[in-house]
Amino acid sequence: MDISSIQPISNLALRRGQRCSTSDSGEIFSTVFHQPWWLNAVTGGDWQEATVTSNGAVIARMPYVRRRLLGMPAIGMPPHTHVLGPQLPVIRGRAEVRFSNRRALLTELMSRLPPHKYFNQICDPSVTDGLPFYALGYDSAVKYTMRVAPLASAEEMMQRMRKQVRYDIRKAEQRLSVDRDLAIDEFCQFFNAHTQANNQQWWSKRFIRQSDALKFRLFEACIRENAGCLLAARDSAGILRAAILLVWGNGVMYYLLTAHDAQPEGAGSIKLLLWEGLKLAQRKGMIFDFHGLPRPGAVNILTGFGGVVGNRIAVTKIPPALYLAREVSSRLRFAL
Fold this sequence. Notes:
The chain is an alpha+beta fold. It folds into two domains: 3-142 and 313-331, Aminopeptidase, CATH 3.40.630; 150-306, 3-Layer(aba) Sandwich (Aminopeptidase). The protein is 38% helix and 26% strand.
């Protein structure tokens, strides 16, 4: 592959997450999660990137974080980052030519990574298959998400929903009000209390302090970049029943964090806030991404919002000795 024929990723695109042209070679996309300001916020600046350059300009890029598990070098993703993976140009031409050229560029990009035993990246949907990774000795699996494209009006979006979802939203609107000025400290207190209670978990004071500091830093960065907001649902007494954090960039709005009161007074609160998020995305002309289908029971609920199920390629390399470490770290909410 002649990588000199591929145009560079512009500095403007990396800063703002805009779509940038690569002329006859195709197009390359960035997500909000690939942006340096996002990576600085979620890692405190502790991240690196592999790049491929041509004539001194970047033509492919993959940010990552480095950790150690059981003394072994690991490459993973930052916390609160739904997708990452490589930023590659869309190569045009016949199918076999596209695959050969993308594989060559990806091989070059992966060779720039530091030595590692563990690898984990969930790719943006623009990465449509894991075969090039498989050819390099990595495993891949399909993860699912659901997306709702912006329609002409909010009313049309509502009509696309399943009848039961519309009914639950209308009922919630009668009992709950939406607060668009929720403070980040109140969100953190609510999130910590109800996430632990609903999932029967226990978090140490140290973990809570670190987690809160991360959320504060991330939220401040989102406000500075005009790339996020908090939404809350309160009952008639002003009691907080549910809250969500939305972030956006490059034409996609993501459902990032959520917490809810499991009491009957909060019934329908999350659906109401998701509806508010969908309307906000529609006004901005953005796709709304629900961030995955976390469990089988969520499939019926989230597909009721009228979206389309899409794929994300999860690429991994995990030695047998690290399977246990990964399970332990996930249960302790340690983000690789």
